[in-house]
């Protein structure tokens, strides 16, 4: 490709739609506006406004994308993400994928599943891992200890029984759950066992402040996409203790498959705080990751 990139000859007007303003929305907006583009964010599709834009990007393959795919185009290019939630819970066959120009994935297994089930062709897919602004998440050397962070909304998808079994194996460790309580069922499960070393702490806005108080960040989910909490935790210097979920193999430096393996990662002497930061710098820096969107955003010839 010519060293003259998209940014040099085309200023794009981008409409980004996502019902939740997650941190990745802010990263995305910062990246494109720094490159000289206009990016407007809306929580839902406003049809009368869409024709003012060159590209419409949906953060989720939801009802709005279904509607867009079944009506005449409002702008020249439609792009949407398919994440873990929609892939496992929504009916992908309800979307007319012929009218979606490119589909973005954070997880290779989900991308391969969409292709295998003939929803889309491989040529319409792009892998774009979640990315972070490394200026936002500062590094501070961490060391082995006995404080374990579990950063997730409390619900059935997060592997709560696995978390509890690990906590039972390590009674002298403290496990802190930070996030909203989405499921009363799982909350009652925790209350029933009432483990003295497991604490449900609720939502915390200052995530970076939490990182500096902890020694490890734990993930027990059987299914995920590309969880930002682990990426940000590693960027801060925390050791990741990640269950091998579907499609996880290329995302993090090591995993556990059994409770005993998780316990080993939490109790062994090996702890390489700076290496965890470098892993994120090499793989998840938003200024590098989002470059892969340049050709995706390129307008088709003749447009």
Describe the structure.
The chain is an alpha/beta fold and 303 residues long. It folds into 2 domains: 6-131 and 285-297, Glycogen Phosphorylase B (Rossmann fold); 147-283, 3-Layer(aba) Sandwich (Rossmann fold). The chain is built from 14 helices and 11 strands. A 6-stranded parallel β-sheet has the order 2-1-3-4-5-6. A 5-stranded parallel β-sheet has the order 9-8-7-10-11, with helices on both faces. Helix 7 packs across helix 11 and helix 10 crosses helix 12 (273-283).
Low-pLDDT stretches: 1-9
- Mean of pLDDT: 88
Architecture per CATH nomenclature, i.e. the level-2 architecture of the largest domain: 3-Layer(aba) Sandwich
**Strand runs, count:** 11
How many separate helices?
14
| Proportion in helices | 25-40%
CATH topology of the largest domain: Rossmann fold
Distance from N terminus to C terminus (CA atoms, Å) equals 20 Å
What's the CATH class of the largest domain, please? Alpha Beta
Structural class: alpha/beta
Total count of domains: 2
- Rg over alpha carbons: 21 Å
The largest pleated sheet is described as: 6 strands, parallel
* Strand percent estimate: 15-25%
Identify the strand order in the major beta sheet: 2-1-3-4-5-6
CATH homologous superfamily annotation of the largest domain: Glycogen Phosphorylase B
Order of helices and strands: HEHEHEHEHEHEEHEHEHEHEHHHH
Overall body shape: globular
């Amino acid at each position: 490709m010519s060293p003259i990139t998209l940014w040099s000859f085309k200023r794009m007007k981008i409409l980004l739609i996502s019902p939740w303003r997650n941190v990745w929305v802010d990263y995305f907006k910062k990246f494109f506006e720094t490159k000289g583009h206009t990016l407007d964010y809306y929580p839902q599709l406003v049809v009368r406004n869409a024709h003012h834009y060159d590209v419409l990007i949906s953060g989720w393959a939801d009802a709005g994308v279904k509607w867009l795919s079944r009506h005449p185009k409002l702008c020249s290019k439609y792009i949407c993400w398919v994440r873990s939630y929609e892939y496992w819970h929504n009916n992908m066959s309800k979307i007319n994928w012929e009218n979606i120009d490119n589909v973005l994935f954070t997880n290779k297994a989900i991308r391969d599943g969409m292709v295998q089930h003939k929803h889309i062709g491989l040529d319409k897919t792009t892998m774009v891992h979640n990315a972070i602004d490394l200026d936002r998440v500062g590094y501070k050397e961490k060391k082995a200890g006995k404080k374990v962070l579990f950063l997730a909304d409390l619900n059935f998808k997060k592997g709560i029984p696995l978390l509890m079994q690990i906590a039972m194996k390590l009674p002298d460790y403290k496990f802190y759950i930070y996030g909203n309580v989405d499921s009363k069922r799982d909350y009652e499960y925790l209350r029933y066992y009432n483990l003295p070393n497991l604490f449900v702490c609720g939502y915390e806005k200052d995530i970076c402040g939490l990182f500096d108080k902890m020694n490890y960040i734990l993930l027990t989910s059987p299914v995920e996409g590309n969880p930002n909490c682990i990426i940000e935790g590693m960027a801060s210097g925390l050791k990741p203790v990640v269950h091998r979920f579907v499609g996880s193999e290329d995302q993090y430096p090591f995993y556990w498959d059994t409770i005993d393996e998780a316990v080993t990662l939490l109790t062994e002497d090996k702890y390489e705080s700076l290496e965890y930061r470098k892993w994120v710098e090499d793989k998840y820096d938003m200024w590098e990751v989002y470059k892969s969107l340049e050709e995706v955003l390129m307008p088709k010839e003749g447009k």
